[in-house]
Each structure stands twice: as C-alpha cells, then as structure tokens.
Amino acid sequence: MGWRMNNRLLTQIRATREAGTVRRCHIVPHHGQYNIAQHSYGAVSLLLLLHPEPSLNLIKAVQWHDVGERWLGDMPAPAKWSNPELGALYEAAEERVLKTLGLLPDLTEEEVNWLKAVDTLELLLWCREEAALGNATVTPMLRACVGVTEKRAQDGTLPEPVRAFYVAETQREHQRLSDFFEEVQRDGLGEAEA
After folding, report:
1. Gap between the Cα atoms of 117 and 49, Å rounded
2. d(CA 4, CA 37)
3. First to last CA, the chain
4. What are the structural domains, with CATH classification, of the chain?
5. What whole-number percentage of the chain has pLDDT above 90?
C-alpha cells in the first residue's frame, strides 16, 4: 500500500511539473514565453494578496487548475467563452484528468468564484502587460477578459476585493514597477496595514 501512495505522489509531482511547461495563448503572437507555471504563480499571488483568508483547498485549486492541459493542451479562454458547449466539454475533460490525478480539491461556490476571478484576472493582467509593450494582437483577448470580468461583477459572482483591484487597475495606464521607482522612493509604498 505504501508503494501505491508513493507512486501516486510521484505521478502528481511529475504531472504538476510537466504541466507548468505548457504554453499559454499559443494562438496569439506575444513577447517572450507565457506558460502554465507563470500563470499559476500569478493567479496564486493574486489570490494570496486579495483574499482575506483563502483555504488550503482554494490555494491548491488555483495552483493546479490547469494541470489537465498537460494532456489536453491550452484551449484559449476566449474560445471557451464564445463557444460555451465546447468550453463545457473541455472543462469536463480537464476535471476528469484532475480527479484521476487526485488534484481536484473540493471547493465551495464562493471559492469557485474566487478561482474563476483570479484565473481571468491574471490573464487580463498579462494582456495589459503585452499591450503596454506594443502588442496589439492581445486586444481581442483583453476585451474578452474585460467582458467576462464585468459580467461577473454585474451578476454578483466577482469577489469584492477582485472587483476593487480590477477597477483600480483598469482606470490607469499599465505601469511596471521600474516605471515608477522614483515615485516610490519619493512617496513610499503607502501605508502598510497591520
């Protein structure tokens, strides 16, 4: 029995590592690379910074939600959003892979909303970063992310901290930290909360 557990853990580790190398947004020309590892890191970072107290299951779900793409490939989010039936079939296949691997934590409805929100928000931020570098090919994907985020805000499924960040982020031009380093030196980072 111990061997089966070890073999399962070995498979999970290999699956999560191999999944991290899968390219995202392969249909959109972009600067550098963008893969599941980068996306998952960004999404988990958003969750940890915006959620007041995320559960371990939610953190795991955000980290591993795209592991199925190791076998299924990355279906671009706008393709899923514009073809709901195809998106549902793809998501069901992803869920089967995650269940088989034991990487599908149970989530509450609120946690599912958080997962979807930070998943989309990370893609939206990536699009804004690409656009700031002059990549106009991300414009349709950025519009789709904005549309989905605003729809979730209207139907009440967008968590308030995500909504507040989204509003603040989209009301200004995208800036890299290096773009306002002198301002940070002069004014500081703002008041730290206890």
Report:
1. 13
2. 27
3. 47
4. 2-174 (1.10.3210.10)
5. 76
